[in-house]
Each structure stands twice: as structure tokens, then as C-alpha cells.
Amino acid sequence: MTVQDWFEKRKEAQIQRRALEARVEIEANPDLWTKCVHCDAQLLKKDIEDNQMVCPVCEYHFRVNARTRIKQLFDEGSFEELFSEIKPTDPLEFVDTESYKDRLNAAQQKTGYNDAVITGIAAIEGHKVAAAVMDFDFMGGSMGSVVGEKVTRIIEKAIELRLPVLAITSSGGARMQESALSLMQMAKTSCACARLDEAGLLYINLITDPTFGGVTASFGTLGDIIVAEQGARVGFAGRRVIEQTIRQKLPSDFQTAEYLMKYGQVDIVSPRKKLRETLSNILAMHE
Fold first, then answer.
1. Which of 7, 159, 204, 257 has its CA 20 to 30 A from that of 38?
2. How confident is the model at residue 42, as a pLDDT?
3. Peptide bond connecting 210 to the previous residue in cis, omega within 30 degrees of 0
4. In 3D, which of 133, 136, 134 has the Cα closest to residue 121?
5. Which residues of the chain fall below pLDDT 70?
């Protein structure tokens, strides 16, 4: 055995030992670790949180809730929530495997919200903006009557105060438990966007992962400027449904923010770390 072989063998043994020690630590402290769903790297949860919920190995953007999004984007203490008193009802008394009322109660307890969107007035680096922030944790960010009402009201408030609007979307689409009442929110929010445009005010869409269905087909993509977070999946119908319909295999990057940027459906694709700066620059240019 040469000296070089001996060093290589020793190096390999050290690597194996460190891997074993890491596995032992993970098994002993499972609450401190998580696995990246994209690259399978074992990561300390604190490291991900300190990196704005982005994998430090592959830059996969983990999904974040509305509270985290507000903390990351807006000036500290500037978010003033509006219309929080609006609550969903169960006009159709809908029941599938579980009653709609029970599903709403479970989602409200899980998230602490009345419904899937938070609306309010906030500031980004001093630039005031009316904002609607969706939360996928609330029934998949589905759009029911409350989401449509709150989005419409915050747009009307922006017109009253002469403020730009920022809509941050994360949704699976319309809420089936409200049937046609949910679908009507597409027209309602779209009309509100038209009134904002007539008032000559800026409307910015920030599309995050995932944004699909009726939200994409209405207020989610009607902005003057459409910004998408890196890696976000965006579309109307899901990939599998489209492939079954057209009977063709779609590209691997289909319905990603980068794919939409390539074909002109998105104006800017930004990593999470630069979103605040990007939005601030847009707002500054339109003041």
C-alpha cells in the first residue's frame, strides 16, 4: 500500500464515521432535523429557518405560511390587518366524507385564521401597500366566498386610499364545498381588479408555490407586474389532468415559474432572499 492509498483509505473511513455520527444524532434528536424534499439532504431545521425556509444545499424553496410571509416581506410591525371579522358560513350545508362546517373548524384551529387569506395595509422598505396574503395551510388555500370578499374589499380600500395592491397567492383553486358561490368569486375579484386599473393604481401579483385553479384564472394573474417566487408551480389544471387530456408527455419544468417566464407569462422570477428588494424597487419606481 502506497502512502497515497493509505491517506485515501483513512479519508474514506473518516467520512463514513462522520456519516454514522450524523445518523445517530438525527435519530436521537428527530425534532431538530428535517429532510429536503428535493435533494434528500438532512438539514437542521434552524439552518433552514435562518435561510428563510430555503434549502442551503439545493436552494429548494419550502412552502411558508402567511404569517411567515408577512414577517419576511413587510417592515417590522407595519402590517395592519383589515377585515379579519369576516367569517365563512355553510350556506349549502355541504357534506362529503366530512361536513364543511367540521372542515372549517379544523382549518381555523390549525392556522388561527378565519379563512385562507389575510388582508391589510403594510409597508415594504417604507413604501405603503394594500396586501392580500393567502395561506395554503387553510384548506389548500382554496378560494371561497370569504377569500373573494376580502380580496375585493382590500382592493376597494386601496382605491379609497390611493395605494398600490400586492396580492400574494398560494392556492389549489376554488372551494368545492361552496359550489357556484365559490366560482362567483372569480368574476367578483376580476371586476375589482378592473376598477383598480381604471383608478390608475399599481397592481402587483406575487405568485408562490402552488397557485392553481380559480385563483390563477382570476385575481392571481391580472396584475400590471407578475412576480413569481423561484421554483413556484403555477397553472390552472394539474399536470396529470393535462397529460391525460392531450395524451402527450409534458416537459419536466412545465408549470414552473421559470417555464412561464420563458414564454412571457411572468415578468420576474425572484429567489426568496431577493423578493423584498424586488418588490421595494417596483413600488419605488411607481410612486
1. 204
2. 82
3. yes
4. 133
5. 1-7, 9-30
272-285 helix and 66-73 helix, angle to the nearest 10 degrees: 60
Q: What was the pLDDT predicted at 31?
A: 73
Find, among 168, 113, 166, the residue nearest to 139 by Cα. 113
The whole-number pLDDT of residue 5 equals: 66
Going across the sheet that includes 117-124, the strands are 80-82, 117-124, 127-134, 165-171, 203-211, 225-229, 268-270
| E strands present in the chain | 33-35, 42-44, 80-82, 117-124, 127-134, 165-171, 203-211, 225-229, 268-270
Question: How far is Cα 82 from Cα 132, in angstroms, rounded to an integer?
Answer: 10
Closest CA to 190 of 225, 161, 162, 152: 152
CA–CA gap between residue 253 and residue 50 (Å, rounded):
28
Q: Alpha-carbon distance 47 to 55, whole Å?
A: 8
3-state secondary structure of 37: coil
In the chain, the domains with their CATH numbers are: 63-285 (3.90.226.10)
Structure confidence at residue 200 (pLDDT) = 97
Q: Which residue has the cell 500500500?
A: 1
- Taking alpha carbons only, the member of 89, 136, 142 closest to residue 111 is 136
Predicted pLDDT at 40? 85
Report the pLDDT value the prediction gives residue 172, as an integer from 0 to 100. 94
CB 148 within 8 A of CB 185: yes
Complete DSSP assignment for 74-101: SPTT--EEE-TT-----TT--BSSSBHH
